Amino acid sequence: MVYQSIKSKAGGLMQRVSACIKRWHLVFVVSLLSGLVVILLTLLAYRVEVRNQRDQFERRVEDFASAIKANLKYYEVALEMGRGLL
Length: 86
Prior knowledge:
- 98% of the residues lie in helices and 0% in strands.
- With 86 residues, it is mainly α.
- It is rod-shaped.
- The model has no long low-confidence stretch (mean pLDDT 84).
């Protein structure tokens, strides 16, 4: 009789421990997945930022090239005017 009582109490305790472990397992899995989502979003934001910086650099290079072309045309016109004076 005492053995049955101890066994039933131990069985109930084991069920509670098992439920607690399952709950903590679920918490662990959810926190792990949320951590992975945060890491993936961070990597995506970094990738977008790098792409924006590259595009901005390309636009600056294009602006610089067009400024050089405009100055080159200005110097060509000045050279032609100088030749006309000679």
